[in-house]
Amino acid sequence: MARIELADLAHAYKPNPTQPSDYALRPMSKTWDDGGAYALLGPSGCGKTTLLNIISGLVRPSHGRVLFDGKDVTDLPTEARNIAQVFQFPVIYDTMTVYDNLAFPLRNRGWKEAETRKRVQQVAEMLELSADLKHRASGLAVDAKQKISLGRGLVRPDVAAVLFDEPLTVIDPHLKWLLRRKLKEIHHELKLSLIYVTHDQVEALTFADQVVVMTQGEVVQTGSAQALFEAPEHTFVGYFIGNPGMNLLPCTLKDGRLMLGDLPFSIPAAAAGQIAADGANITLGIRPEFVETCDAQQADALRATVTSVKNMGTHFLADFRLGQYAVAAKLATAGDLAPGGAAYLRFPQQRTLFYVNDKRVA
Ligand SMILES: Nc1ncnc2c1ncn2[C@@H]1O[C@H](COP(=O)(O)OP(=O)(O)O)[C@@H](O)[C@H]1O
Ligand SMILES: [Mg+2]
Fold first, then answer.
1. Atom of ligand 1 at shortest range from CA of 46
2. What's the DSSP call for residue 140?
3. CB under 6 Å to ligand 1: residues?
4. What pLDDT does residue 234 have?
5. Domain residues of the chain, as ranges?
6. Rounded to an integer, what distance in angstroms lies between the CA atom of residue 117 and that of residue 127?
């Protein structure tokens, strides 16, 4: 296992990049702790695979260095980096048995047969492949084959890290759910450093201790599921995490007052300086879970119109029109909310966040 450091890293596939958009990865420095379970989460095309391939050595970064435990490996090929990588689709030897497939990475490293057997059996057990060990891989269904790929990634205890690139893509939804729990257990048991790439927030949040959120070649936040939910550092995290995502309402300044459309809103003291700066692009963010309905008399009541109300079984999902904005709320009860009717909303102060140029200031 190793601590992996990306120092002043950036990557452009094209030569002579000039604009930020020429970079698949914008300049970043980032450390992945030894033994951690990380998820790398972001939409398709944001640079996840590029980042993973730079760590494994399949791609050489155009700028910056990659360090394993302080040692510069930027110019080392994949084979010399001691990394296991699992891809979207099974990479296995079809003509070999499941056992031989799992044993291959160990035999390759000169392991004795007795130790190999012990380790292969341990990993097969964890992935529920024990009954298939004697079978040829070619006869198995695609999800069993992908489990073999996962096993091959996990079988060596001495790797610097195991990298997964959307490994459950070919797995059916039910097994997917079981496997990502399993991977989390395996992480605790085998103490491997794992980086797990996915575009699926549920997958990322159930698997990882730390989720690294990326958009457009940039890491915008690294944090626990709770931190990403309660305190998104970037509007993208607010929007991307959650279902539905955070309500993001662009605000303006008028005569030193913050305006939510026509409605004045008090500026939190902590953010007053940054919010009042010239040309600040200000956004108010509040998660649907924290929007409340209230009485018209309440001092901070915001008058809105109900657009729709849906009973989701565990809660109600209501959509409102608040001036020029659409606002979603998850409510325990629907009360007398009806489409087209009036409603009063409030945004509790401690749950209302402010962003300047997409970065959180309060
Ligand atoms: N081999 C390549 N050559 C040129 N551009 C590439 C190559 N691989 C990826 N890209 C571009 O780099 C960006 C990031 O891609 P990728 O790392 O595959 O994202 P993700 O894995 O998040 O979907 C995309 O714009 C993609 O088109
Ligand atoms: Mg990818």
1. 22
2. S
3. 13, 24, 42, 44-50
4. 98
5. 4-238, 246-360
6. 15
Atom of ligand 1 nearest to the CA of 217: 14
What CATH architecture is 246-360?
A: Beta Barrel (2.40)
Whether the per-residue pLDDT at 279 is higher than 80: the answer is: no
Alpha carbon distance 343, 158 (integer Å): 60
- Ligand closest to CA 15: 1
Partner residues linked to 97 by β-bridges? 136
Q: How confident is the model at residue 195 (pLDDT cuts 50, 70, 90)?
A: very high
- In this prediction the pTM is 0.93
pLDDT of residue 329: 98
Question: pLDDT-based confidence at 144, cuts 50/70/90?
Answer: very high
Query: What residues contact residue 184 under an 8 Å CB cut-off, 6+ apart?
Result: 37, 206, 207
pLDDT of 163:
97
φ and ψ of 111, to 5 deg: -65, 145
- Secondary element (H or E) of residue 154: helix 142-154
**One-letter amino acid of 243:** N
Fold of 4-238: Rossmann fold (3.40.50)
- In DSSP terms, 163 is beta-bridged to 85, 195
Task: Please give the distance, rounded to the nearest whole angstrom, from the Cα atom of residue 185 to the centre of ligand 2.
Answer: 25
Check: CB of residue 62 under 8 Å from CB of residue 36.
no
Residues facing residue 355 across a β-bridge: 283, 360
Rounded to the nearest whole angstrom, what is the distance from the C-alpha of residue 122 to the centroid of ligand 1?
Answer: 36
